[in-house]
Amino acid sequence: MDASRVQKIREDMERADARRLQPHFIAQFFEEAFKLLGGTLREREPKRFEITHVPATIRNRDRALGRGLPVLTRYERITFEKTLINVPGKPMAAFVCPGHPLLDSTLDLILERNRDMLRQGHHPDRRDRLL
Fold it and tell me: How far apart are CA 8 and CA 68, in angstroms?
């Protein structure tokens, strides 16, 4: 491979990485949305959380969506970072990322509740927030 081809591949990989959803963005959205929907989430280790209560609205939405594994009533540990799934001496964590039923159900409820605001778009004088 010549140097220009290697440079092109490197640039393509950098662009793909920049477009990827970053774990901290997913975590920030999920924490706020989950609490808004009545869930209880507590950090137990750095970037690892325990969910003691998943609201029925989220569990019911998962059943309505009918994708994959069911949403549980509680999670001993969750994380948004793949490297933190298995931490020595700690419970294994569920990896919450796009496609996980807990995140998908939470996102679907937030979108449903804010659909009108999303259709209106952003107005500089409005201070409304989705969450």
Answer: 38
